[in-house]
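A common beginner's mistake is to predict each chain separately and then try to dock the pieces by hand. The better habit, illustrated here, is to supply every component at once so that their relative placement is modeled jointly.
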Amino acid sequence: MKSICAIEGVECAGIREGKYGLALVRAAGTAAAVFTRNRVRAACIDLMRERIKKGFLEALVANSGCANAFTGKRGLQDAESMAMIAGDAMGIDPTRVAVASTGVIGRYLNLPLIERQCRFLAGRLARDGQAEEAAAGAIMTTDLVQKHALARRETFAVGGICKGSGMIAPNMGTMLAFIYTDASLRPEDLSSSLRTAAERTFNRVVVDGDTSTNDIAICTATGHAGRVNPAEFSEALEECCRSLAIQIAADGEGATKLIEVRVRGATGEGVAAEIARTIVASPLVKTAVYGEDPNWGRVMAAAGRAGHDFDPERVTLWIGEGEARVPLVERGAILADPARAKRAMQQNRVVFELDLGEGGGEASAWGCDLTERYVEINGRYTT
Amino acid sequence: MKSICAIEGVECAGIREGKYGLALVRAAGTAAAVFTRNRVRAACIDLMRERIKKGFLEALVANSGCANAFTGKRGLQDAESMAMIAGDAMGIDPTRVAVASTGVIGRYLNLPLIERQCRFLAGRLARDGQAEEAAAGAIMTTDLVQKHALARRETFAVGGICKGSGMIAPNMGTMLAFIYTDASLRPEDLSSSLRTAAERTFNRVVVDGDTSTNDIAICTATGHAGRVNPAEFSEALEECCRSLAIQIAADGEGATKLIEVRVRGATGEGVAAEIARTIVASPLVKTAVYGEDPNWGRVMAAAGRAGHDFDPERVTLWIGEGEARVPLVERGAILADPARAKRAMQQNRVVFELDLGEGGGEASAWGCDLTERYVEINGRYTT
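With all components supplied together, the output reads:
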């Protein structure tokens, strides 16, 4: 399994000790990041918002088990110490080390543990599948599977790893994602491509509607492949981010099915995205998908509370995709064939397609069903 | 059990046949209503938005089992027919009959059934506890218990019944509530009192964040008790609505615990209300309460994503109430005593109190825990 290690100039390593994992990635280059919009931010987010302004990074240190969020001034000092420890271990200027954390909120970092883990990993940085699996595994919390994605183009590639399973909601960042490319890009182009890609992918995944305090997506461009066409790069970056985003949705806490909602015919892309996200976030839609219950009225009810006017008489709604696509409503008229609709729900991937008949705006959003297992996982998290 | 039947001038009756219930209430007087803000509205809501403008009602007919939502022009005709049938049965001008529906979306009303039920009930209207229980029972869907409330004052009283258990979110109305008072009030005063009371009570209950297509709260003032002090009336109406709202939260689908979130020290009441609602709606807070896991970081994370700036360093957070109240955070400093906090969560009613230290705004919101049973109930609803 190779994604970030497919990118020239990237080396990584990872270790997990019980709930406490640590990943190091060494990759020097132009860098950009997007962050959580939550007002209660982790200390590492506050640090990175400043640090990324220089547009250049040499390495990354990320820990799981402790979010270092709601930890005040001490938390900020701890985040800086974490960068210092990692920089020292790798022989890198600490101000060029990115820091990310995920785990329980309201607890302080265990710096002696982090120091021991950094020293252990610094000598083991490598550019191979095993090192990448160790790094991707180290940042997991309730994730059941690792998440890797690679978008290859003729002259360059974009690869990423990420983690995310709960506290996932439509908002900038939405999880930890570390993306690398060998393309050479100006910081402002990289930043603008990352913003657009995050908006169309990570920000359209909803597991539970809870926005994390720690979300961050960082992209570093090592430049080994030289200059590239910016439009082609944006498209490849979006492909890589979309793959990671869908992997997060499919691995949502307790999920048994991936839900994809495609909205078109909206007055704009933003409107389509808000409606798609509201549907995919609805607990009633999510439980109906889990129960394979073709209760499509819940899809319409969720669309209606997204805050945008549309004419129910113009709406067309399908369930399923390809040959198995079943129309439920056609320009406002109810066509529902419960038996066929139920079959379309008996898949691992359930697609709803909604045409509002108002304009040319379209967007997709991804989520997962809501199961008893989600409740079980989150009822006993800190213990 | 008497609440609306404690009000002079109110008679009622109800019947339930499997999933299909019908309630009639006869009460002539000044009337006001508040409605769902969902863009996809039930036909009865569209009808009532027009009908309530006259500020006077003589009766109400409400059915459960079919929401008559997303049913287009035929749905609107059906809602009018339902009022006509009920008016005919009771010998009342049909334009003075309020109509409300709750149940599955995207299905047409069974008018022959409604006609049979109306004719049966019209001769059985009564002002006693048995009739009121039949009416309150008839409008239940996934509700496990009936909901009645009575606020008595020296010269008048306000009584109400309501239903609501799922598809409950912060938005105007939020369920079916039928409230009666013997106070005599001008339509505009009644309307303004109802709006304020609904904003502070029904709109602050969240079960699952899904806003119904059919929410309505109607208040009829029979006037038998004569003129009253408007401020005293508003206060009594709010008491009655608050009791109904808390009963909805406690009877949330699958709930084992009531959650109350009190926010103070905000820059305004609206800000406090939005933060309180965001906390009480958070699936992660809800599952932590279910698991009796004192994971208070989730409360802070939810507060942070409510969309209002505040300084985490000024925040104080308690769990529990009265003598069992435990401070978790004091002006930003973490005090958490997990054992004491856990005890505070082992109650049927779990209270979080958050002081933002910014101003004088305060508000409360109510919800319930998220359990495996919610998933079970909603995974198989239409079948």
